[in-house]
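Appendix B, example 12.
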Amino acid sequence: FAITMALDVQAFALEWISAWNSHDVDRVLEHYTDDFEMSSPVIASVMGEPSGRLQGKQVVKEYWTKALGKIPNLHFTLVEALPGANTSIILYHNQDHRLCGEMFFFNGEGMVYRSAAHYGSSSVAHKNP
């Protein structure tokens, strides 16, 4: 799934959200390099890694599989995809209506080599514009 930063950030975001909503960790991992680095404040509690960082598909797959096991109703709803210079931020609501954001760093082939997850402190009400 190649990405052209100026044109396909929205398509990447929709596919990433769809992959997560399918609960198929291998499908999510298709967007990442084998040695990518993931950081998240949730890593410490799920994996016991106090730095909040993991590196490599196999380790992150274990983390995401454990996390999905704890959140069987996981569901993301896209809010917005923000393009940057070989980066993107996806803003989304999770199953608890909490605002979340994930920043992605892309290599020259359009693969994610680093990502950082961020979570709002509380749920937000759905509002129609």
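The chain has a mean pLDDT of 90. The longest helix spans residues 5-21.
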